[in-house]
Sequence to fold (688 residues):
Amino acid sequence: MNIALITKLEADMLSDAVKLRANSDLKSSEYATPVLGLIFLKFADNNYRRHEQAILAEYQKLQGTRREKPVSEIAIEKCGFYLPDHTRYDYLLNLPEEKDIAKALKEAMKAIEESKPELEGALPKDEYAALTRTDKTIPQQLLRTFADIPANATGDLFGQIYEYFLSEFARSEGQKGGEFFTPRSVVRLMVEIIEPHGGKVFDPACGSGGMFVQSAQFIEAHRNELKGADSGVYVCGQEKTQDTVKLAKMNLAVNGLRGEIKQANTYYEDPYDSFGAFDYVLANPPFNVDDVSLSSVEKDRRFNTYGIPRNKSKVKKADEGKETVPNGNYLWISLFATSLKPQGRAALVMANSASDARHSEADIRKTLIEQNLIYAMLTLPSNMFYTVTLPATLWFFDKAKKDDRILFIDARNIFTQIDRAHREFSEEHIQNIAIISHLHKGQREKFVQLIDRYFAAGMERLIENNEKIEPVCTQLLDVLDDAGGKQAVAELLQHWRELEKLRTHYAQYREEHAIAAEIDKKNQAQHQLRHAFDPFFTALHEGLKRLDKTVRQHEKQQTGQAQQEGKRTATDRRTKALKSALEELHQDVKNAELYFQHIHWLQERFPNAQYEDVTGLCKLATPEEIKEQDYSLNPGRYVGVVIEEDGKSEEEFAEELAKLTDEFVALNQETVSLERVIVSNIRNLIGE
Fold:
């Protein structure tokens, strides 16, 4: 399925599910678990269906022999679990309405847990009865909703749908929901920079397990880079809330991940004996926790290796033994550093304030810097999380780091606005930010490969657009039959014909660089190719603007004529259809051009396809520079800001400022005059 179809499927299913909840007395938190359970059930059924023929064939082959096995045992060997007939999705979907569907779902979930012990207690059971408090048909209606998921859908699609519903439930839950979900685009960026390539992955505040899913997907996408190395990933998560542990277990099962999730309070429990045990650590821990018992953590090497956060003032005698850590942020920071193997890497989300925290936290930070554990610091835009409105910071650790500098990235101005209160990174934003780290590591080939992917995607979109241009021009000529309209259409077609030259240019570039070329030469060729496209888009936008103007003039004439004839409708259907087609063409061009804009963004900042400091974006800071900043790890202190050039001379600026001052004075005088009039009018009204 393509992205558009997946997006529509997700939106339609969510809409149906939300409508059903609106007719019940359920809170979103009560509704989320049974809904996610049904998504899991559909996945389990689809997965089982793919293995069913092989399971039955093996069962029949062994039947009557000494090696005979029950079908359940064969099923577990081949697909990881066994689904008896009464657990199958179609069986539950087609139960008659008079049956107790909630009870049937409960029995189905119990049977699945019996065949897959690691899911024991994780699947919703009694929750389906709760759905029927106000409407007994809700379980069956939900079964119908998720039946729309294609039978041939893979685990990747199920993981995406599952994460989509998790994120939407988190959004509706606000503060509470954010406890179990970290936005996907943030996790994707963390994983792209940390680059996990197999091994043990630890998340001591795992929520719903999204860090694990993205790690596994990264490994799968980069499997060809491993060159025969073990790419298996085993995940270990812990989470203090039992309901969230259940979500994480389902998420692991949905995505076919090996590992375990345990309920534990990370401050006081260490179920995995985590000190120096993991290849990778990723987490989004709770910020600014202030109730952790100091006596419980101060002797724990997970937390005290680099120092323990302490209160500034001495504790009173009456409070001895009751003292708490003033802020838990640096407990988490220490935990990530101490949980890593000698070659390990970590990424965590942390409150911005931790980058500059003072007193005992500053001492811990200084120790981490001096021991060269911190690889990079990245400031996120605000409103990326459902629970945090201010910008957060990503911390990256690398125990195998050789360079003593720290990479600082300020990504506060890189985002896509989702709605008034929420932002996210697009896939291109993720790749553009991550490439800074790759260049820093000397992976220049990844830079030119990324540029190549953008060229390919942009050309594909342009070729698709080219197929639409003839029908749109026919529509234009059908409506705009005057000389001006015909000329505007002819100019647009002329601009589009330039695309053939660009296709030839692009084909030549690909042919010349089909074999891995020297990076500097390829980078130079990419610059030349991008420069060839710039005039094309400039001319295209100008042509479309002229057409817009022509259509507006045509519409204005229609309005005037309609008024003269006394008609109520001004714009005819053909013109409305034309405007819609033209708007669509505008958007198609913008969508294609977007990839070339990403190319421009990258080439402008890294023209030589190698890392360099970019004002306002990134900076490699030396230990001396960091010491000068009192060991602050705030990227804003190092990368600087871009001062936009307005192109005005000093005299022009002074002249404009004087003009604005005159306008300001005049407006102030007018305000005073209006105040007098208003006061006078009020007094007249009240008879004074």
Notes: The mean pLDDT is 83. The two ends are 76 Å apart (CA to CA).
